[in-house]
């Protein structure tokens, strides 16, 4: 946890994560450059700088695709959740690769002239009304600016300054950046290709990103549409306690407001907002650790009885009243933000 | 999943199951990334055999011409008269001293060559003493070889000759436009052959002069041209009015 800016140290996991990231980038770029230079006849060999600018661009696209796959994959299987923990490192690296690509393009294609490279980039091709001839460079520039803003605000300092909602909204711009990059490649490099490999790689990457998002969305929509949660007087039916694993939660969706995570901690039943105050992570997919609901994304913790993070941290989420009737848990859809604890419901028959 | 399997990023311990999975996933991603990188590098359009040898300076003696582009007509090692286009090291035309135009000169620079084409990025130029050899190098008259109708791409000759590899196509359009704007020679390659071709005729207006900046929007786009093929010594030209150029 980071609010109050206690430094989260370089855990062994973090070090291995970044080492794997570095290795992945080096292997990708190395394989690209070696294949393009050493396994190509001298008479058909591109200039190293032109090969390098393509390599950096391809690496940035591949990494951005991976970044966008991790979120929904972590929702589909908790096995992928650790990949999400340091995802911001991937984002900053992706921006660095994209910047290297843009820098080489600016130098090589737009430099060595008496015209400002930025003017050249934006004005050398005026065909903004054409699809085939569209100046694809401008799309890449906008995507790069978005990636820059995201990289610059990736630290939790900015999450705290901007607030989690604004921060989240800002970082959702990554989808615009990805869309711009896809069109940038399709209207740029792919236009000059003789084979369909580049187009296929971009299409498969973008298709995978779309597919996993649709799968997660469909799963959430099915859960939100559960008919058996409806109940009278604002109380929602959750289900029997023994259907919830110890330390885990079932997520229910009230008619209005945020989803609710109903946790079972031994015999105690708690209900808490499903939305983590850090980055909006799904608390209901986390578990209770040391008596606190723990977010699966970055490990932010909240006491289930009052929704507050343990001192010295200051985050807070809503909690909800629960009751057990005829062996069935009910939760009230109205959030509670009072100073008093919301006592858990206790089930005598729950499995532990 | 067991309780101990729950991953907490800030924890010093990573669950064993996660370690195994992440090791496998990480290795697969790294290997897959390498294979993807190599595959993408090998799958690309042809570059051509143009070369800019920036490591070797040459000095050529010949006669300087200015129209439509600066050239040096000199005698090659095989004794044949050869036209070498003269350019600066960047994306701007070479500024010629008017006193040297039409006269003998020693020109020093690095050579950009593709097929029979030659271009020199000039670093130094000096008047050469008059001689009978120099006097022989007077430009021959233009020979009209008849009408042509071609589909292809307007190139900047410097990049296509070898300053860039590859030096054609849409990703190169901005660079080609800068070169054209700077007054560098324009050439024409037929569609589908821009990467492999070893010859690209100059593209000039109907009177054999260089086009102005009005041609910039058409550079590096697929176009058709209807004009006449003209030979001036060892240089082939397509001469066509601007109205005979059409974007496809």
Explain the overall architecture.
The complex is a heterodimer of chains A (352) and B (248). Chain A has 352 residues and is of the alpha+beta class. Chain A has two domains: 212 residues; 112 residues, Rieske Iron-sulfur Protein (3-layer Sandwich), CATH 2.102.10.10. Chain A is built from ten helices and eleven strands. In chain A, the strands form three sheets. In chain A, strands 2, 3, 4, 8 and 11 form a five-stranded antiparallel β-sheet that branches. Chain A has a three-stranded antiparallel β-sheet with strand order 1-10-9, with no helix packed on it. The longest helix of chain A is centred in the N-terminal third of the chain and has 29 residues. The N terminus of chain A is likely disordered. With 248 residues, chain B is of the alpha+beta class. Chain B folds into three domains: 28 residues; 85 residues, OB fold (Dihydrolipoamide Acetyltransferase, E2P), CATH 2.40.50; 105 residues, OB fold (Dihydrolipoamide Acetyltransferase, E2P) (Beta Barrel). In chain B, 19% of the residues lie in helices and 37% in strands. In chain B, strands 6, 7, 8, 9, 10 and 11 form a six-stranded mixed β-sheet that branches. In chain B, strands 1-2-3-5-4 form a five-stranded mixed β-barrel.
Which keywords apply here?
heterodimer; A: 352 residues; alpha+beta; Rieske Iron-sulfur Protein; 2 domains; three-stranded antiparallel sheet; B: 248 residues; OB fold (Dihydrolipoamide Acetyltransferase, E2P); six-stranded mixed sheet; five-stranded mixed beta barrel
The largest pleated sheet of chain A is described as: 5 strands, antiparallel
Number of self-contained structural domains of chain A = 2
The CATH top-level class label of the largest domain in chain B: Mainly Beta
**Helical content of chain A, roughly?**
40-55%
Uncertain spans of chain A, ≥5 residues at pLDDT below 50?
1-5
Please, how many domains of chain B?
Answer: 3
Q: How much β-strand is present in the residues of chain B?
A: 35-45%
Number of distinct helices of chain A: 10
């Amino acid at each position: 946890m980071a609010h109050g800016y206690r430094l989260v140290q370089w855990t062994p996991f973090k070090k291995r994560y970044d080492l794997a990231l570095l290795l992945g980038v080096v292997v990708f770029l190395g394989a690209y450059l070696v294949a393009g230079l050493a396994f190509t006849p001298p008479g058909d060999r591109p200039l190293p700088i032109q090969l390098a600018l393509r390599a950096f661009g391809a690496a940035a696209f591949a990494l951005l695709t991976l970044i966008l796959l991790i979120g929904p994959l972590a929702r589909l299987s908790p096995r992928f959740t650790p990949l999400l923990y340091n995802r911001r490192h991937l984002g900053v690296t992706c921006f660095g690769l994209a910047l290297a690509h843009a820098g080489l393009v600016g130098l090589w294609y737009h430099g060595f002239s008496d015209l400002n490279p930025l003017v050249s980039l934006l004005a050398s091709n005026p065909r903004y009304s054409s699809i085939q001839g569209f100046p694809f460079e401008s799309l890449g520039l906008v995507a790069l600016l978005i990636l820059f803003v995201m990289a610059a605000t990736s630290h939790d300092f900015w999450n705290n300054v901007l607030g989690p909602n604004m921060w989240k909204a800002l970082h959702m711009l990554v989808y615009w950046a990805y869309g711009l990059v896809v069109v940038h490649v399709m209207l740029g490099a792919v236009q000059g290709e003789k084979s369909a490999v580049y187009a296929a790689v971009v299409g498969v990457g973008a298709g995978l990103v779309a597919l996993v998002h649709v799968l997660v969305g469909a799963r959430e929509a099915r859960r939100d549409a559960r008919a058996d949660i409806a109940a009278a007087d604002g109380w929602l039916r959750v289900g029997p306690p023994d259907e919830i694993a110890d330390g885990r939660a079932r997520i229910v969706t009230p008619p209005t407001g945020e989803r609710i995570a109903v946790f079972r901690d031994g015999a105690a039943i708690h209900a808490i907002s499903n939305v983590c105050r850090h980055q909006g992570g799904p608390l209901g997919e986390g578990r209770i650790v040391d008596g606190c609901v723990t977010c699966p994304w970055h490990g932010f913790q909240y006491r289930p009885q009052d929704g507050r993070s343990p001192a010295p941290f200051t985050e807070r989420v809503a909690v909800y009243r629960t009751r057990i009737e005829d062996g069935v848990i009910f939760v009230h859809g109205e959030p509670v933000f009072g100073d008093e604890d919301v006592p858990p419901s206790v089930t005598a028959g729950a499995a532990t | 999943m067991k309780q101990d399997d729950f991953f907490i990023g800030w924890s010093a311990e990573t669950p064993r199951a996660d370690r195994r999975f992440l090791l496998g996933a990480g290795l697969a991603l790294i290997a897959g990334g390498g294979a993807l990188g190599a595959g993408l590098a090998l799958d690309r359009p042809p570059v051509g055999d143009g070369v800019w040898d920036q490591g070797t300076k040459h000095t050529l003696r010949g006669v300087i011409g200015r129209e439509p582009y600066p050239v040096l007509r000199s005698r090659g090692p095989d004794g044949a008269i050869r036209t070498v286009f003269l350019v600066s090291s960047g994306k701007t035309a070479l500024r010629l001293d008017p006193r040297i135009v039409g006269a003998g000169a020693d020109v020093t620079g690095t050579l950009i060559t593709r097929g029979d084409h030659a271009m020199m990025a000039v670093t130094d130029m000096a008047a050469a003493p008059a001689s009978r050899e120099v006097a022989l190098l007077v430009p021959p008259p233009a020979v009209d070889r008849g009408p042509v109708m071609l589909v292809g791409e307007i190139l900047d000759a410097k990049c296509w000759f070898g300053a860039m590899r590859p030096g054609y196509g849409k990703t190169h359009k901005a660079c080609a436009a800068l070169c054209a704007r700077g007054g560098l020679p324009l050439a024409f390659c037929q569609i589908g052959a821009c990467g492999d071709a070893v010859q690209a005729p100059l593209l000039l207006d109907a009177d054999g002069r260089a086009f102005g900046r009005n041609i910039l929007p058409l550079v590096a786009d697929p176009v058709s041209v209807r004009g006449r093929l003209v030979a001036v010594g060892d240089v082939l030209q397509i001469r066509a009015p601007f109205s005979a150029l059409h974007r496809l």
